[in-house]
Write a structure and sequence with these properties.
Chains A, B: It is an enzyme of class 6 (ligase). Chains A, B: It comes from Fructilactobacillus cliffordii. The structure is a homodimer. With about 80 residues, chain A is an alpha+beta fold. Chain A has helices spanning about 15-30, 50-65; strands at about 1-10, 35-45, 75-80. The first copy, chain A, has a three-stranded antiparallel beta sheet. Chain A starts with a strand and ends with a strand. Chains A and B meet through β1, α1, β2 and α2 of A and β1, α1, β2 and α2 of B.
């Protein structure tokens, strides 16, 4: 069994209105040292696979198939073997 | 300047309907080896601080003040020094 941790964020060229709203709110709350805020999605996915390479391939395929919008989002992931 | 990466997920005891919906959809798409899916939030926060400890304290305070619901969510973070 493998655990994939997928981090999805907007591509640098894409406006992140949610991040801007959060940054403004943090400023109002007194967190004046915040320079920028980006918000994205985070997934923890457990999957069965024979090898780590097989798990990585599955993780990339399912991420591109369902978890991201390839036009506006990019992703990275960590992958580790875990007990069932 | 420091870059904090904050990973927010539901506490284990909290139902994750979004994760269940994604898992079902992945099954329909043929990803039958997926054992579980959890969805959370991911933040990248750049902030000015004199020391790494000061940056960590700020990051924890602003996360608990605005980025998570302490009743249902938990978080972890990575923190690194970056050029401005």
């Amino acid at each position: 069994m493998y655990l994939g941790k997928v981090y999805v964020s907007y591509k640098p060229s894409v406006l992140d209105p949610q991040g801007t709203v959060i940054q403004n709110k943090l400023g109002q709350l007194g967190f004046a040292d915040v320079d920028s805020v980006k918000q994205g999605k985070y997934f923890e996915i457990k999957l069965k696979a024979d090898t780590k390479q097989d798990a990585a391939t599955q993780l990339e395929e399912l991420t591109q198939a369902l978890l991201i919008n390839p036009n506006t989002e990019t992703y990275r992931y960590d992958l580790e073997e875990v007990s069932a």
